[in-house]
Amino acid sequence: LPTVRQDLQSYAFYRLECAVRAAAVLGVVGIGGLGFQLDLSFETLRYHEIWTLIVALMILSGLIDRWSTTVRRSSAAAVHRFSMLAVLLLVPAAALWLRVNPGVLWSQRSRSLANDFSRDLLPPRLGPGGWSELVGSTIDTVALSLLALAISVVGGIGAAIVSRRRTEVALTAGPAQRVVAMVTRLLLLLARAVPPPIWAFLAVLIFFPGLWPGAIALAIYNLGVLGRLFADSFEDRDILPTDQLLVTGAGPTSAFLYGALPTATPRLIALSLYRWEVIVRETVVVGVVGAGGLGQLINEHLAARDFAAVTGVIGALILLAFAADLIGAGCRRVFR
Questions:
Q1: What is the pTM (predicted TM-score) of this model?
Q2: Among 161, 142, 157, which residue's Cα sits nearest to residue 226?
Q3: Alpha-carbon distance 210 to 190, whole Å?
Q4: What is the b/e burial string over 139-172, where b = at least 16 CB atoms within 10 angstroms of the residue's CB?
């Protein structure tokens, strides 16, 4: 345990950062919080409120992002102890703020409703469109995820190159480069702070319902995530190959292409495959607002209150996510 303690804390704080963004997604579907207020502003056409809420999401995500990054990069025991103590104090404070009542989970009313709901959900069955509808939506989901991944990886690599703090010329970038990097990091923060359903809603308004709005929404959101992770990979890599190329007279571009990029490539591939697994699941979120795939099919069955058909679609999604996990794990072993 002592040898992996720091890694456990680092991943835990990274997941805290992800949980803040996920909480905004849950808010969009009615759970509460900033995401819920953002959804209300869209539904009531109060567009003047939207940017205020987006800025609030950016500030919240930025603070958690900075805290998470500090914990992951710091080797000081004091930083880790302070952060863990803060979390231990914040968790009960959050429970008090949300008025969490665990007794609701096993109350008589909850058990009765769960039994009724289970009878509606099981056994799973196909919707009115049969196998052709389910298979077609599954293919749409795979195509949607691959298209979103391709856009976000290409954009993420470009953003990471611009936003990294360390260049091939010196450990610290010049003033102009710092300004460009700061603006790029703010844009990446905006991309990942706004929940995918909101990006999908905006894309649907522009491009009308279909797969393209879903792909664009997921690409923007995951570009923000991958751009930040790719930049960390470039900054945390072994700088020896790059230094050796610079000493032999290579220019900054050559040093990056033949020194930094090959060193970071295995990590970039691993992160891209991991995000593809996540994107496959996220397609359901954007599908709820009419962006196609299995998510849209789930939304249609929910509207018809055909819960057994919803379970059938969820089963197809589980199989698809399981396949994506297996493919991603196998590819990561190959490129390790």
A1: 0.77
A2: 157
A3: 24
A4: ebbbebbebbbebbbebbbebbbbbbebbbeeee
Q: Phi/psi at 215 (nearest 5 deg)?
A: -65, -40
Place of tokens 């809603």: 201
Whether the pLDDT of residue 181 is over 70: the answer is yes
- Find the Cα–Cα–Cα–Cα dihedral 228, 233, 236, 241, rounded to 10°: -140
Element (H, E) at 304: none
Q: How many CB atoms lie within 10 A of CB 232?
A: 18
3-state secondary structure of 314: helix
Omega cis (within 30) before 123: yes
Where helices occur in the chain by DSSP H, the ranges are 5-28, 34-43, 47-73, 77-97, 108-121, 130-163, 175-193, 196-207, 211-236, 240-247, 252-255, 261-287, 293-303, 307-335
Q: What is the pLDDT of residues 42-96, one digit of tens each?
A: 777 787 788 888 888 888 888 887 887 787 777 777 777 888 888 889 989 988 8
